[in-house]
Amino acid sequence: MKSSDEIWKDVPGYEGKYQVSSCGRVKGIDYYVREKSGKERLHTGRMLKTFIVNGGYHCLKLQVQNKRKSFLVHRLVAMAFIPNPNGYDTVNHKDENKNNNSVENLEWLPLYQNNRYGNHDAKMRLKLSKPVKQYTQDGVLIREYESVASVKNYGFNPAGVSKVAKGDLKTHKGYIWKY
Question: Structure pTM?
């Protein structure tokens, strides 16, 4: 989504204080503060900075009446923009990129379904955990390894073995490799 298409809505529960955008940005809204002298002073709203919490999610703190509360940015976007008629409690990143908090990339899911949703790291571990077989160039089976990652313990490069097994290379260190 281009920033020119960015839509701003009030953060639920913080109406008139903070807004969240369809691109995943959060800002404070301009407001007036009455000083002890009785004079009103404009407090200019600003774009809020996020920080990364465990798991790689963007987080920020919102404050009202000296009470601060932490929020995950993707949840604020979903709460403001995505209807949740089933009352699901989990917000999923469709592309599995936790830096992409745009409304198009988010969806409400039940917890069990979100937990089944694959993540990039898990898919890579699964890919590397496939058994792989080592053959001579004449096609004679030498050994079967429990995973591509385990060939490293025997002096082979897992990336090279994987490329041969996928057909991108003919051999690695003089051997043919197959899944």
Answer: 0.62
Task: Give the tens place of pLDDT for each residue, 43-75.
Answer: 898 999 999 998 899 999 999 888 999 999 999
Candidates 148, 150, 156, 152; CA nearest to 175 is: 156
What does 28-52 look like in DSSP terms, one character per residue?
EPPEEEE-TTS-EEEE---BPPPEE
- Token pair recorded at residue 68: 């601060």
Domain extent at residue 107: 3-117
Q: Please check whether residues 99 and 53 belong to one and the same domain.
A: yes
Are 110 and 151 in the same domain?
A: no
Helices (H), 41-81: 73-81
Report whether 102 contacts 1 (CB < 8 A). yes
Pairing assessment for the beta strands 18-21 and 26-28 based on DSSP bridges? antiparallel
Contact 56, 72 (CB under 8 A): no
